[in-house]
Design a protein that fits this description.
- This protein is mostly helical.
- The protein contains three helices and no strands.
- It is elongated, with a radius of gyration of 20 Å.
Length: about 60
């Protein structure tokens, strides 16, 4: 199925079906992002940022939320 075919199919959904599709897609997209984030953590891609955040916390260079 091409992107154009998917676009056409989505444009033909009823209001109820479109709402269901939006909910499904939000979960689908969030799961993809979560998986990518987990891979990045496992591969050490966030280690430098974590180290920097910890250093800022230790030296009281953090702003309270």
């Amino acid at each position: 199925m091409t992107l154009k075919q998917i676009e056409t199919a989505i444009s033909q959904l009823s209001t109820r079906e479109l709402a269901q599709f939006r909910e499904w897609f939000a979960h689908f997209d969030a799961d993809l992002w979560d998986n990518e984030f987990e891979r990045d953590v496992q591969n050490g891609k966030l280690d430098r940022l974590a180290d920097q955040a910890l250093e800022h916390a230790r030296s009281n260079r953090c702003t309270p939320l």
